[in-house]
Specification:
alpha/beta, DNA polymerase, domain 1, TIM Barrel, 9-stranded mixed β-sheet, 11 helices, 32% helix, elongated, binds S-adenosyl-L-homocysteine, binds iron/sulfur cluster
């Protein structure tokens, strides 16, 4: 097997609770996946394969265009790359897509894909079509370290962070399925991305940032940062960095207006209190009235849905002077969930109080509930493998490689 080339891979962040090695190693067939490499790393990958720097620069530019503007995965279709160069690339590199295990379509048109990583971990992505837009809900982790009590993903263990390739791969796959190549500025079906699939994106900060940078790059997919929203449960120390380094729209999973209730339903609140989360929102770089912060609020019967809760929510948002909109999410049930959804009347009353205070508070229509694709319903079988089993699988794989 080849040794790993010297890519500029950062050490996992100090806040990341999962020490996942990030060195870029070749796949089991010895080839290196070009998908998910930054522009400099793509160039470096070519230089490491003995292309001279000038050639590497030119080829990297061409490859970037083919990969991210045209959606091509086959080097032999890259017509401006010579017929001798194409097999040279083919031998050393690959342009991956996540493996699709299952694709489902809801009666409302929502689509869900069950995807599998090369090391056999399952995760999901969801596409939600609307009349004037289409939103891809992207996963950042297999499972989640946090365990919000109303969230099905939260009942999984964290299996691992997704790599930039696996994050960008979701967007690539969705565009393959929607027939959206080459990239066009107008008339797209996939117009928006929300980092609201499985996992806490700020606990996989570097990979999410690197993946989204590729999605936003104007020479490729070119999706504007204004059309990308990152949702966090409130990882306070990384919120400012998200604003500075990714500068996408921010959504915060608030869900409660007192520390007592939030401690219970969003346990990360025991570490980063409600006031700290709201202060981090007030400090979020780039937030203003044109780019408001979305506060997600799941409606749980008799838990967080009273008129008093709605009034306290308004008070807090005004106290911190937040450019805010509130997204009221009817609780989506899953087997064994410890909560019920608030009644439609209660949700309406709650929404009216917030609206009357001049803050937009639409009720989100649940989408794809029949295929378990709605918010908080994503959960895969990956967790069924214990650590020992995963270690054994990894050993077997290693043995097979000799
Ligand atoms: N981990 C991130 C992003 C993924 S969850 C976060 O927590 O923000 C996306 C949204 O769905 C979050 O607001 C989450 O709180 C919400 N959600 C989770 N479970 C839900 C459920 N069962 N019903 C409705 N919304 C839920
Ligand atoms: Fe993780 Fe978000 Fe689910 Fe909480 S709501 S368990 S942070 S995915």
């Amino acid at each position: 097997m080849q040794t790993a080339p010297a890519f500029s891979m950062p050490i996992p962040g100090h806040i990341d609770p999962v020490p996942v090695p990030r060195a870029l190693v070749p796949r089991s067939d010895g080839r290196i996946d070009l998908l998910g490499l930054s522009k400099p790393d793509l160039r470096m990958a070519l230089e490491t394969s003995q292309l001279d720097p000038k050639q590497a620069k030119l080829r990297a530019k061409q490859l970037w265009h083919w990969i991210y503007n045209r959606g091509v995965t086959d080097f032999s279709l890259m017509t401006d790359i010579s017929k001798t160069m194409q097999p040279w690339l083919e031998q050393r590199f690959t342009i991956s897509r996540p493996q699709v295990v299952e694709a489902q379509v809801s009666t409302d048109g929502t689509r869900k894909w069950l995807l599998r990583t090369d090391d056999g971990n399952d995760y999901e992505m969801v596409f939600i079509p609307d009349a004037d837009r289409g939103t891809l809900c992207v996963s950042s982790q297999v499972g989640c370290t946090l365990n919000c009590r109303f969230c099905h993903t939260g009942t999984m263990r964290l299996v691992r962070n997704l790599s930039p390739s696996e994050i960008v791969g979701q967007v690539m796959l969705a565009r393959d399925a929607l027939g959206e190549w080459p990239s066009q500025p107008e008339g797209r079906m996939l117009t928006n991305i929300v980092m609201m699939g499985m996992g806490e994106p700020l606990y996989n900060f570097d990979n999410v940032r690197d993946g989204l940078k590729i999605v936003m790059d104007g020479d490729g997919i070119g999706l504007s940062r204004r059309r990308i929203t990152l949702s966090t449960s409130g990882v306070v120390p990384l919120m400012a960095r998200a604003g500075e380094e990714i500068s996408v729209n921010l959504a915060v999973s608030l869900h409660a207006v007192t520390n007592e209730i939030r401690d219970e339903i969003v346990p990360i609140n025991r570490k980063y209190k409600l006031e700290e989360v709201l202060q981090a929102c007030a400090d979020y770089p780039g937030a203003n009235n044109a780019r408001r912060i979305t506060f997600e609020y799941v409606m749980l019967k008799d838990k967080n849905d009273s008129d008093a809760d709605a009034r306290e929510l308004v008070r807090l948002l005004k106290f911190y002077d937040l450019p805010a909109k509130v997204n009221l999410i009817p609780f989506n049930p899953w087997p064994g969930a410890p909560y019920e959804c608030s009644t439609p009347e209660r949700i309406k009353a709650f929404s009216n109080i917030v609206f009357d205070a001049g803050i937009s508070a639409p009720v989100r229509t649940p989408r794809g509930r029949d295929i378990d694709a709605a918010c908080g319903q994503l959960k895969t079988a990956s967790e069924k493998k214990t650590r020992a089993e995963l270690d054994r699988l990894a050993e077997e794989k290693q043995a097979a490689l000799g």
